[in-house]
């Protein structure tokens, strides 16, 4: 019942934000933008979306210590599935699917898969923060005068939040030890669930130790940086399809607010509402009026959701077939038949 209530609050909050945003924008403008979108630029945006997920697959392979020229593409279905589930499920609960799929398809332990996901999100934040700070300072003269101070404040806050995230890999053993002590103190250390939790924690600590190398960190950051440059490129292409031609630095500055808003759990379903609010804030600073900023945010999010549903749906179907096939009993041998 509590879970249902929490999900209800999530949907209600998202719906409230959407209603408030639509009250400030003309829904007909959103429909006209989508209907008149240039197909050529939509295809360019789809191409960048596909490329971005390929880059994320190579990053995941690096985090899991499974390098290779083409072998990282085995993780591509998981990247598409993660994208659509995060877009479709509330509060980014789609994140929980990745450790499951990695375990089912690649025999990666749940603890290792969860750790790889956590590290990927840390590097995501690092890359977005770096790109935002660089391009925000380059474009300060092109932003509205009243928004320059807010851009500087956000840059400082991103830098401050980055410090504890960077420290996370070094506190794994301490957190595991504290968890063990807590379970002993409340006399839960002998329960099956507690033992399973500790096993997952131990796997996570081992995975962190394996990932904590200069090579892994460097390559992971490079893959992440390229993936986010691709993400901002697909946003720029979709905006070109809608008839808005922003330079790349302004696209990064404007859409970063939307990305950060969409990453916040418990207040968004499919990113709708929070995404458009962040987009409107960012692109109002870049020069769009409020109605245009909100309308383009809805249109770009709808395009992104549509392509993620197409690719993610195909990936989920493929993985369900593969996982189901792997679980089928092996055919009897000739000796068993005899």
Poorly predicted runs: 328-338
Q: Tell me the fraction of residues in β-strands, as a range.
A: under 5%
- C-alpha geometry: globular
Instruction: Summarize model confidence as the mean pLDDT.
Output: 79
* Proportion of residues in helical segments: over 70%
Largest sheet: none
What structural category characterises the helix and strand content?
A: mainly alpha
Number of domains: 1
Cα-based radius of gyration, to the nearest Å: 22 Å
**How many helices does DSSP assign?**
14
Distance, first to last CA: 54 Å
How many beta strands in the DSSP annotation? Answer: 0
Sequence of secondary-structure elements: HHHHHHHHHHHHHH
Walk me through the structure.
There is one protein chain. This protein is mostly helical. The protein has one domain (37-169, 220-326). 78% of the residues lie in helices and 0% in strands. The chain has 14 helices and no strands. The protein has helices at residues 2-24, 27-35, 39-63, 76-88, 97-106, 110-138, 148-167, 172-185, 192-211, 214-242, 248-263, 274-285, 290-327, 334-337. It is globular, with a radius of gyration of 22 Å.
Task: List its salient traits.
mainly alpha; disordered C terminus
Structure summarized in a few sentences:
The protein is an all-alpha fold. Helices cover 78% and strands 0% of the residues. The chain has one domain (37-169, 220-326).
Q: What's the SSE blueprint?
A:
Layout: H1 2-24, H2 27-35, H3 39-63, H4 76-88, H5 97-106, H6 110-138, H7 148-167, H8 172-185, H9 192-211, H10 214-242, H11 248-263, H12 274-285, H13 290-327, H14 334-337
